[in-house]
Structure formats: C-alpha cells, structure tokens
Specification:
There is one protein chain. This protein has 202 residues and is an all-alpha fold. It is built from six helices and no strands. The chain is globular and about 55 Å long.
Length: 202
C-alpha cells in the first residue's frame, strides 16, 4: 500500500526535523560557539565584555528552549538530541580556548571533558542495550555551575575591581568536582540496572 503524502508535508522519515522555535533557539546556541571562540582568541576588555554578553545570552536560550518546548508541546527528537550537545559545545569550546589563552586551569577542564566523553559513551551503550538512564539529581546544577565558572573566566581583566577571574578559577574546580560526582551517578545507575550482564559468561 502506497503511503500518500499531502502537498507541502514533509515525508514521515523527516518529520523529526521539526524546526520549531525551541529548536531554533538550540541551533542559535550552537551558532554562538564559533563567535565565542573568535572573541576569546582576540581577548581584551571589549572582546571579553562582548564574549560574556553573548555567552550569557546563549546560556539563557538553554532555559528558554526547554520551557517553550514543554509549554507549546513542541518536544521533538531532534530537540532532545541537540539540546545537551549544544550545552556541551558552548561550555567545552569556551573552556578549551580559555586554557589556550592561559585564563583557565587545564586540569579541571580536562576532568570536565573526560567526564562528558565518558557519560556520553555510557548513555549511548545503555541506549543500544535498551537500558534507560535518566538524568541524575544535580545534573542541571552541574551545567549551571560550569556556565557560571566559564562566564566569570571570560572576564579575565577583572572589571570594576571585582576578582571575577579568581572567582572563576575556584568555581571551575568546584564544577569539575561536581561533574565527577554526577558522572558517578550515571555509572552507578547503569551498573544497578545492567551490572549483572557485565560479568555474565557468554
């Protein structure tokens, strides 16, 4: 039986690519990443200020897109896929550039990156095995803490005498510790649901 497609309607296989307003906000967050990288590279009082303003605006889209999607009932598969990716791209790209410029510590940045890779891989394996791993308590706080630390580090010239740079370095270590803790939560959840299979003989 041939499936009929109404004129102007997207094929069924492409319906998940619904570019709703929440999805557009998520894409805007991704589009902000290369601009932020360039501003951090140019660094200076003006570039730092513009970078912080853009970073704050991009972080706010993380709040807006989720709320809009739920209120409008526009939660889509592409939105679920891109939203966490956009957050990670925004924070990690900024942190790597800040480390390269000497404005952020490498060790907590590496810890954050390794944890993100590990948890993403774990959730991918879990999805293949049909094991559902929900967001652990504190996961959203982890993202917010990373964003606040990164935002403070962007203003490395300490305007108005406020030691934002020192505050950002301290918050980055705290974010790294919190990141490891939430990462352990994902690992514990996976082991609790699928641990017996890990050591089962085939």
């Amino acid at each position: 039986m041939t499936q009929q497609i109404h004129p102007g309607a997207a094929p069924h296989s492409y319906r998940w690519l619904r570019w709703t307003t929440p999805n557009q906000l998520t894409l805007a967050r991704i589009a902000a990443v290369p601009v932020l990288v360039a501003l951090i590279y140019w660094h200076g009082p003006v570039a730092n200020t513009v970078a912080l303003a853009l970073f704050i605006l991009a972080c706010l889209t993380d709040y807006w897109d989720g709320n809009l999607a739920r209120v409008r009932k526009e939660v889509t598969p592409i939105g679920k896929l891109l939203d966490p990716i956009a957050d990670k791209m925004l924070v990690t790209a900024s942190l790597v550039m800040l480390v390269a410029q000497g404005h952020a510590d490498a060790v907590p940045t590496i810890i954050i990156l390794l944890r993100e890779f590990a948890v993403s891989g774990l959730r991918q394996v879990a999805a293949i095995e049909g094991v559902a791993i929900a967001a652990v308590p504190g996961a959203k706080a982890k993202t917010i803490l990373q964003m606040v630390a990164t935002g403070a580090l962007l203003m490395n010239h300490d305007p108005f005498g406020v030691p934002l740079h020192a505050l950002g370095r301290g918050l980055l270590w705290l974010a790294a510790a919190w990141t490891v803790w939430t990462g352990y939560g994902y690992l514990a959840d996976y082991y609790r649901k699928n641990g017996a299979k890990l050591f089962a003989r085939k």
